[in-house]
Structures are given as C-alpha cells and as structure tokens.
Fold each of these.
Amino acid sequence: MGQLTELISQIITYTAIYALTSIGIVIGGRTGIFNISGEGIMLTAASAGFISAYTTGSWFIGFLVGAIVGGLFGLILIALHETLEINQFILGITLVILGTGISDLLYKIIIGVQLFAPEAPPVPQISIPLLSQIPIIGTLFNQNVIVYFTYLITAAAYYFFYHTRLGLETRAIGEDPQSADVVGINVKKRRYIATIVGGMLMGMAGTYLPMIITGTYTTNIANGRGFMAIGIAIFASWRPERAFLGAFIFATIEILAFQQQLSGSDFPYQFLLMIPFISVLIIMWLFRKKVEFPASLGQAYSRE
Amino acid sequence: MVDNTKKIQNDTQMTRFWQSAKPYLLAVIISFSVSGILIGILGYNVPRAFQALLLKSFSSQRGFIQTLQKFIPLTLATYAFAIPFRIKFFNIGGWGQMLFGGSMVAIVGIALASFNLPAIIMIPILLLVAMAAGAFLSLIAGALKTYYNINPIISTIMLNFVAYYFVNFVATTNPWKASLGHPMTLKIPESGRLPELLPGLHMGILIVLLIIFIIHFMTNKMVLGYEINATGINQHAAKVYGINMERTLMLTFLMGGAMAGLGGGIEVMGVHHRLIEGFALTSGAQYGIFGILTALICKGNPLGVPVSALFISALLVGADAMQRTAQVPVEIVFVTQALVVLLIVVFRSTGNK
C-alpha cells in the first residue's frame, strides 16, 4: 500500500511537467498557432529559472523567471509569424536550437563549474487537510505548490474554453480565423495572448525540472519531454482536460521505465521509454478520423 | 548604345546579386556583432576569440581536416531536411534516421564479422544497410502522410526518440554489447571500416563528394529533379501536369532518409568503428538537428547545401578553437548560428514584401 501510494505520488509529480507543457501547446493551438518550440523553452526556462532561484534563494522568483522566459519565446514566435508570416514550424525548430544553446550558455556564464552541484531552494509542499488523509488518492493532495497550480490551470483552461463566451470565440479562431475576424473577434490580439500564455506555462514546466525533479540544472535536462508534450496535445484532441489525462499516462510510463531500469530485470527499459513516442503515432493513426484538430492549425492568417 | 545596354544588364545583375546576398550578409554581420559584443561584455578577449572562430578552420591543416570531419555528417544531415523541404515538407527526423543508420550498421557489421568478407564487399553492404535503415524510418513518416495524412513534422519527431532509445538498447544489450567499460557495442570487423585518406580524415569524404555530385546531376539533369522542383513551386500545377504527388513525396522522404542514414552509418564505419551509447549526442550524429538550420540557410536548395554545410562546419571547428584559446564557451556559437538562421529567415521574408 505504502509503495503504491509512493508510486502514484511520484507519477503525479511528473504529470505536472507534461500537463503544463501540453496545455501550453493546446492554448496556442486553439488559436491556430502550433508552437513546437516547447523543448527549447523548457531548456532555457530550466536554466534561467534555476539560476534565479539559486541566486535569490526564492523558488517563486525561479518560476516567475521561467514563465517570463517562456512568454518571451512565445512573443518572438508570434510576433515574427504575425508580422512577417514566417512559417510557424521553421520558427519553432529554430527556437528549439536557440534555446538549447542559450540554456547551457547562461548556466556556464553565471554558475560555471562547481565542485558540488548547486541545489535549488525547496518548493513548498502542501497537504490539504482531510483530503490528503484518504488512502492512496490522498497523495494527490499532498504535493508541491506547482502541482496544485497545474490542477488549477487544467480546470481553468477547461472552464475557459468550454464554458465562457471568450473561450468559444478563441476556439473559433483556431477553426476559422477569417469568420472569427468577420464577426469582430480580434484574431491578432488573441493569438498573441494565447501564444504568450502558452509559452509561460511551458516555461514553468521547464523550471520545474531542476527545482523539483533533479534538484539542480544539468545539460539537456528536458530530455525530449518538450517534444512528447506535442504528442500529448494531439492525443488530447487539443482539449486541456484530456491533456492532463495524457500527461498522467506519459508520466506513468516514464516512472515505470525508470523503475524497470533500477530493478535490473532483463527486459530492456528502452522499449518502455519508446512507448510514449510510438503510442503518439499509433493514436494518430488509429483515431485519424476522430482526432480533432483546430482546422487552421499551423496556417498563417492575414486580412489581405 | 550596345555598351549602355550591357552596362544596364550588368547593373541589374549586380542589384539582383545584391538583393539575393543581402539577407545573408546582414544576418551574418548582425549575429556576429551581437556575439562579439556578448563575448566582450563577458570579459573575454574579442579579437583573439574571433581569430580562433573564423580562421582556425582554414589556417591550419589540422583545422581544415577537422572541418571536413564535421562536413561529412553535416552535409548528409542537411540533405535529409533539404530534399523533402523542396516540396515543402519537413523532415525533422534526420537525427533519428542517422541514429538508426548507425545502429543498423553496427548490428549488421557485427553479424557479418564471422564471414570474413573482403572490404570491397563489406563496405558497400554496410553503406547500403545505413541508407536502407535511414530510408526505412523516413518512409514510415512519408507513408503516414501519404496514406493517413499525418503531419510528418510530428511523426518524424516521434521517430527521433524511438531511434534514440534504440541506440541505447543496442549499445547495452547482448549479443552486441562490449563486455567492459562505457556502454557500447563490439567493434565492427576491420573490413567494414572506412580507411583513412589522411590522418584523421576517412574515406567518407569521397562518398560525400560523390553524393553531392549525384544530387547536383539529379537536380539539373533528371526528370525526377524537375518533378520535385515543379511540385515545390506549385503543387496544384504539378498535379495538373500529371506529376504524381504521392510518389514525389515518398521519393523525397526516401532520399532524405537515405542520406541521413548514410551519415550515421559513415560515422560508425569511419570514426568510432562501433556504436557508443552517447552516439546521439556526442558523435557526428548530433548534427542531425543542426542539419535543419544548415538547410534553412540555403533555403533547402540542393546546390547550396555543401556551401552552407561547409560554412557551419567551419564555425563549429572555430567554436572549439575559440573555447580552447580564449576560453569562450562554445554555446555562444550555437546561439550565433541559430540567430544567423533566424535573421536570414526574417530578412528573406522582409525582402519579399
């Protein structure tokens, strides 16, 4: 029992990474902007966020800086796309490479090589009275602050997109920007906001890695998770609440593969680690008729 | 009169040249100024850093050989992106295709060890295996697009990671793994290794030169090259004129993947002679991702690929030299390169407006 609780607790801790990143992608995607630069954002935000948290001693400033970095990446992407109509995917992949370079560069310049790996300041753990006492499921309510923030964001994004007029309008942009424009929705403004907010969430997920998962910054700390989140967004049919579910599944696989590796059994753990990536392909293939896509995803829109 | 027309012609040629060269020059000048300022602010010796960065590759024989070493995998990785990009499809999977090519060469090479085949048979077999492996991976993406309309950007990214874990699987698992030390496979037999032409430079360079020649020939002289160009310029028109879109798509992915696979295979056959666990991130295969940038610099133009790959290889070698002589972190150069590409893309699209 204790072991199972421990396992679920760990999975939930990892779920936050995938959920924040993929919901970030979903939010931009709903307005038609497909931001594939999550990996680059996560790396840069991991580095910048960790450095700020370490030097100030404040976990909060760390995540704040991470979010700002992510927002900046989003801003660069959307500004270049909207003003010059540069292909979103070209921008995305260039930002990934830019982010990979910047993250290590920042760390080398500011922190450099240290005898002992610098440690991130602790992020507060909160256990919610009563709820956290429930056996097994209680572990959902005995987590770090950012996990609660992730719950909140998931619920808020779901509520926004499916229960508010503003959300409905925003979804309309992703389906048909021209009609949305005709009805008087400010397509450009919404796209800017959505991409920046999406980038901020991805940035927080990046900062989460050194702050919670590893405790310090290391090269290539995102390790493909930014790309996996793209798969989750697709798996989720671009719905935030399903993205959370997808994040939970991917996190489960990652934890199980990790345990398999530790257990020293003969089954190659590498195949477990392949599962999320292969499953994205299989899901896209199996549900190709059912997977919803915002119809204008990835396409530029200009009034002319 | 005649002189005048000629002069005007010359002038328009000059402006045209200037127009097409402008984005590149501006991008390079701005990015290098930014990195120069950055290097200066950080307190490094700017002239010394730039001297190492720009001159190292061509000022010494060793630097030049190092440049060619990087040029081999980088050129092939660049083709992997550039060829499908001709018809406006994105193969982000060059990295994975290189890894898979390298892994399969190791597997087949070790499997054939006991047959004692001569090099003249062994080397072509392994090169073909490498190409087939890379093409296999990219064709999955091509087929998913052709038959199920699944975006190749997504599928190739996913396949990258499948290949990434496959490398680690091969390097750590029997019957391939070496018994001791860092996770890696046994060596491939002597007859499967690419001989050295000069100390530090293996035969892969000749293979790459041959590939460059073939691709030039194909682009300019063959129907396929024409079809790819036509499809890239206007899909609908190409369709009307009877060019089979699906076939062209599959062919470009096949060729792109084969080039990447070859790049990975050559790394194993020429440099390491085995598959090492860090292959994906430390060997020439790491340029699988860089190839995208390099291809974007030349807009995916096959004729521009070698030039742009040489430029980036020289910078990579310069970056290492800069870190050694002026202690400037190499990442500054990575950032500069990404900036160069970003600015080229920006200036190109502002130029078009």
Amino acid sequence: MTVSKIRTDAAEAAQICIVTVTGADRVGIIAKLATIMAGANINIVDVNQKIMESYFVMTMAVDIAKASADMAKIRKLLDKAAREMSLNITIQNENIFKAMHRI
Amino acid sequence: MRISVEEVFETVRMTLDHHFDIRTVTLGINLKDCMDRRVGKLAARIHKRIVEKGKLLNKFADFVEQKYGIPITNRRIAVTPVALLLEPLPHKIAVAVKIAKTLDAAAKEADIDFIGGFGAMVQKGMTAADEILIDSIPQALSGTQRVCGFLNLASTAAGINMNAVAKFGHTLKDLAARSKNGIGCTKIAVFANVPEDNPFMAGAHHGIGEPDFSLNIGISGPGVVRDVVSQNPDCDLTQLSEVIKRTVFKITRAGELIGREIAELMKIDFGIVDISLASTTSAGDSVADIIEAMGVRHIGLPGSTAALALLMDAVKKGGAMASGNVGGLSGTFIPISEDAGMIRAVRDGSLNLEKLEALTSVCSVGLDMFAVPGNTDAETLSAIIADELSIGVMNNKTTGVRVIPAIGKKAGGIVHFGGLLGSAPVMKVAKTASPEFINRKGRIPSPVQALRN
C-alpha cells in the first residue's frame, strides 16, 4: 500500500528501468515484452541485443514513471513471460548500473 | 551515456550466477533515552521503538529490493549496549534476562531475524551492571532465539581486561551446557577494539558515539570475487589485485546506493558500508574458495596468509575508492562453520587453529564460529581468547572470538547448527593449557603502541 504511494509521489520525472533478457534467442521475445509494457502503460525507450559468451542478451530501457503497476507487479508479469519462453528476465532501476559502472 | 549491454550483463550475471546481494542492512537504534529505574517502563519503551522501526526497515528494504532487483538478504537491528541500560536498575540477573526477552519478542514481532547489542564495553574494568550482564548471558542467550551479544574485552588504549577474560571462559561453558549443540555460543562474540558501527552479527551494536539512528550496510559476499579470480587464472598477482579492486568497487557502489536510499526513505542518517567479504553456507560463497582460486591448494597451507593479505588489501582499496563511508569491521570473515571451503580444510587437515590465528594477524577479524571439544577447560577457552585479543591490541586492529564448546564431542567430530550458522568441525586444542596464567587475572597493560599523542 505504502510502496505504491512512494511510487506515485515521485511519478513526475522519468524513471528508467532496464529489462534484461538472457537465454536462447527465439521468435517473439520483443513482441511479448512490448505487449506486457503496453498493458502496464510503460514506455519503451531503447532496445539493444548481443550474443555474449554464448548467452543471448537483450536489454530494454523502459520508463515506468506513468506505469499502472508497481515494480512487484511488473516483475510478476515478467517472471511469467520468462517461464513461458524459458528465459531469464530481470528488471532493475537504471541507477544501480550507473552506480556500479560510472564514476 | 547510456549503460551498455555488456555492463548490464555483468551486473545481471553477478546476481544470477554468483550470489550478488546486499548481505545485510542493519539499523542502529539508540535506546539511552528509554532508560528508567523501573524495568517495566524500560521494557515497554524498548519494545515500542524496535517494533516500529523494525517494521519500517523491512518495508523499505523490500521496496528498494524490488526497485533494483538485488536481494537484500538480511535486515537486522543493533541497539545501545544493554549493560548501559541496566545501570539504573536493580542489579539482578532476572532483570537483564527480562531485557533480553524484550529484545527477542520485539524482533520477532517486527520480523527481524537477529538483534544485536546485548553486551558491554569492559576493556578496562567492569561496573556492577556490566558484571550482571555477563552473569546473565547463559540464561539470556539460551532462553532467546534472535538476541546476539558482544563484549569488548580489550583495546589498544586500555589493554586486555583479564578479569573479564577469565570470567568469560566460565560463562561460555555454562552457556554451551544450557543450549542444544552449544548453539547459544554462536550468538556471542568477544572483541578487542570492537567497532561501534559494525553491521554484522553477532558483534553488531549501536555504539555510544552514534546518533539516534543509523543505517549500516554489509556488501555482497565472496561469490562475485571468486568468479573474477577464477576467470583470470594467468595474470600475475599485481594484476590480480587490480582485477579484485575493480570488482569490489562495483559491489561497494551498489551497497552504498542501496544503503543511502533506505536511509533516506526512513529519514535517518546513513552510517557506513562495511566491505568485509562475508561467507555464507551457499555453495561458491566462500572466502576459502577465493584463496584456492588464487592458487593455494587448500586454505591453511603455506601461501594462505600472503594470499589473504593480498585479497583483503585489494578489497579495501576498491571499497575505499567506491565509498567515502567505509567502516565497521571491513576485514575478512572466515567463519569455519559458515564457509564450505573452511570446513573442508579443517576436515582434510590443512587448516588448524594455530594457522587460523595466524590469518587474523593480517586482515581476518578473528577466530569465528569454530568448535572445540566440550571438555575443554574454561581457562583454556579464556587463553584462546586472550591470545586472539592480544593480536588485535598489539596491531591496532579489531579481532574477535566466537567459539563453541561442543558438549560431548571430541576433536574430529562435527556439530550441526543448521540454517545460516552451518556446521562446525570440532578442532583440536589442548584440554588444559595455561590455567595458572589465566587465574593470575588483572589487566594486561596497554602496549606502548597506544602512546601516540
């Protein structure tokens, strides 16, 4: 209850999160994620993908500032999609990457 | 500049494959203003404050965990040393035990797994209240689940309080006898030069130099570092130090970000980041495994001390660059029972108590979570403690001891605690060592190193 309140209080500026998909590439990953994001009123800002150490890695930057669901709910939807497509999907606020990889 | 796929992947892999987490967020709570001459009043105030703040801590830690997708493994509370709160109260063991039970019940209600601070600063001498607290330890820690205790028995400035060291040997035997498998002894650590802002149990407490509240962070464990060492089998030790440094920089920054954010949500001061590498019982989350990945066949064999020194120095350099608020213990934890590699090394004979002690002279912070035969004399336990604390006193560093006399077990046996506490192989030690030395009591004077002004 209070968690969603915190989210709403700070909802004016952009809140960029990075969705990371790892696993085997297949048809329909982006389509599936795009459907989930649209359903939760989340704007997709950027998409990148690469093969690294035999992993397929896709990152998607999304803005959750106007999202109709909180992080826990979004994570649940992504977990379900991950199970259906046998992939790993994570979502994290981009500040963690900035803190770790930028001085 | 947007974060690259490679950078994102590095962080995500740390979480998915190498136990990357925030090991602990520990809320320090001042209880001095709760003091009263009536124990009921004191207990009620303590209960109210801990439940209220503990619930908030859990709530905000959950929120931040979701936001960053990094697990916050432990949420804990550290309070003002309880001996201080006992000062105005009747000097009875039952009173001290009541406070321990109050802390236990409040932690349970707030869903906090461990609450630290049932302890005293007695490096130079003991007040009547300090003595009562120590006398109450066997009952207090065997009769509660979540309460952790500490005693600071020595410091570089004061020397070693051998009266308290001698007393504590008997306290430990009594505590071991009262709790199943001696598990009560896993909840108390004794120190030289104890830090006041250490977020790790069992030694955590909210020191008297601290503000009303402070939020302290323990960073991720050894899994991430071991992975980076394993991935660089061919680089020389200078380069290896550099590689470790860079990794620790990243995990410390994550710790600081998360700590600051929780502190801000709670509207309290952010305290420190403790950059200790703390093992867990999970496979791969072992400091011994890092040392072995560096090229030492088994921890405990020649080369271990040098490897550990290099490791921790690199950790400190990376951590100090990442955060202006490094504090707490910030050394290596090599608890025997909680580190699969340490257990293996004791069982196959490459690591003994003497070598474990040597490791503490460089950067380990003590003899932690090891078992000795249950028939070991109280004076021998005191002597192990005195040896270890003297390393801390003479080298201006923190050292601690958490030893479990395993009742009914002999050297070579094993005692299981379960869960986070793991299993401890029983280490070999002389049953009777130096009773005449310990029973002299008194104080080992502070060393000349203390005269620095």
